[in-house]
Amino acid sequence: MEISSTSRSASGSSASSEASSSSIIVSAIRPPRVGGHSCPSVQGGATAVRDSGMSDGSVVPREPSEPRFPVGAALRADPSLEWVADALVSGGSPWRLVRLTPSGATALQGWTEGARVAADTAALARRLIDAGLVHPVVAARPPLAGDVDVVVPVRDDALGLEATLRAVAPSAPRVTVVDDGSIDAAAVVRVAASHGADLLRRDVPGGPGAARNDGLDATVAPLVAFVDADVRPPTGWLDALVAHFDDPVVAAVAPRVRGPDAQGPRARFERAASPLDLGPLPGVVRPGAAVPYVPSAAIVVRRAAVGAAFDASLRTGEDVDLVWRLVAAGWLVRYEPGVEVVHAARSTWGGWVAQRFAYGSSAARLEARHGDAAAPLRADPRVLATLALAVAGRPRAAAGVLGWSAGSLARQLEGVVAPDGAEAVARRLAARGTALAAPGIARAAFRTYGPVLLAVAAVVPQVRRPVATLALAATAARWWRAGRPRTLSFPALSVADDLAYGAGVLVGAVRAGRLGALRPRLRPPARALSSISRT
After folding, report:
1. pTM summary value
2. Which pLDDT score is estimated for 65?
3. Which CATH code fits 148-347?
4. Which of 220, 255, 294, 360 is the most buried if burial means most Cβ atoms within 10 Å?
């Protein structure tokens, strides 16, 4: 599955990904919305049997409280964190300004220098983690017996299943394979038996979501790791993922998914810029963030949180849907790129293009369920206007809008920073916020609207230069984020990838009658100074 949006840059699987908007936000840190059930920790050994009264695709709301972050844990700063003044920091996801009390500033400084979370700072730690300003440092540890069961869905891919089981079996005492109606069922039986895995069979294919749900029902451990039958995790891959569940509000953790290190233009592109690869930086996962979703190619979930788990009616986008429902129910979902798994690329060019199209086509169904969370692009109107004017070849007008943004921010910073420094700080922050937003906005705009823009450019000569500039900026942003791979085919494949995805978004929206999947979300201007957090 995959998605598109705007800032620290990510690439993804169906409605809105490249990251969060890096617009100028001066806002309070708020805890996530919560619902109403308890969340037992893994250490407690609690398990939850799926409630037969739940409708397919429901999750368990988290109880309406804000558990403090575990005392004694270590934190590290997000690369975006910057000290603007003594008690004013910027960064996070979405990018924002946060004002701290003197004691809060002292605590944050201490954490960045290696201090541990104390009882009197645990609530602050929770808020800053939720804002994406800091991240937990987990000590990897092998899961205890009975902590984790592994579920591997498969359909007509005995070779992929063999590779996956060879990788996961040594680190998981119990593995359940769910055959989703394979034609050659005997081949799946042989592979599962050779690795000592339990086997379930669906006579009628129900899709990956239905297969994973069957596996969930057949297991009992408090944590369940879903691994697709063409994914190869490394030795000890569960150790760092399971450690995140020491935090009682974490419902799911996913590793980084990368393409194989293989030869050929398609394989090299997948290795550098797979749509399932969300980048090298950790983060909280939620709509509009730098990591807006995680794929279910490999993911560990807390049974007590996921309830009925995947919506079996979705053949694509079911992973994004689950993650967003968990977030809406008050749970935390984390992305842990310190663990990397390998996901094989499609074996043919036709399959490769069809995969991208399918990712895009799920955007309309996600928009129907999640509304603005599935917006293809998120931006402050002033940032978007600045960039649009620059792309249109009007640098003076772009500079004027940027100056207006800086002036508005300077007025909000009066009394927060030294009087003679407010304007300089505001100019720097406005420029930085726009620069952070630019790559993600370019990627999201071309990835979603590329087919339409190219069609218009074919008949309207006046827009050809701006469209070409956008395509170049989007491709360059992806190339830079991918580590600047030295492959001549990268630009062409990046454009093909984007156009296939954008075509899927357009066709899916028209078929479903959900043009909201094409509508960008423009955030209002920055809030007043009174809303700056005084944590």
Report:
1. 0.83
2. 67
3. 3.90.550.10
4. 360
